[in-house]
Amino acid sequence: MNPNIYLLIFCIAFSVLVIICIPILWQVWRTMKNATATLETLNKSLPSILKNLEDITTNINNTTATVNREIQTLSNFVDRFYSTTSYIFGDLRNLAPQIMKGSFFPLIKNALAIIKGIRVFMNVFLSKK
Q1: Spatial distance between the Cα atoms of 62 and 56, rounded to a whole number of angstroms
Q2: Where residue 103 falls among pLDDT bands split at 50, 70, 90?
Q3: CA distance 25 to 20
Q4: Where do the structural domains in the chain lie, given as residue ranges?
Q5: Of 17, 31, 66, 123, which residue is 20 to 30 A from 1 by alpha carbon distance?
Q6: Is 74 helix (H, G, I), strand (E, B) or coil?
């Protein structure tokens, strides 16, 4: 074969390749144009987005600090309440056997019986009117 034929086949193949690549290159150019417009829009709105993000972060930090402070206050209150109630109930547990053995318990028992009797008497007395 003649080198001119090889050159002709090569030129035809190259021309077909260029014709196939033209739509692809056109689409890439349009995409880059749209990406440039999007990038410009993003660059214009990015400072306000960052400012909003900074405000949100500041609010979250303030809220977290407030919640931590309130939880600490509540924890201190619960600790004081627990220590007070355990002190009171601890004293009652220590005093309960002494009250049962002493003369104080029968006195309370008799007083409750007298109060119950007076209440029954008053109910009967007032219901007959």
Answers
A1: 10
A2: low
A3: 9
A4: 3-127
A5: 17
A6: helix
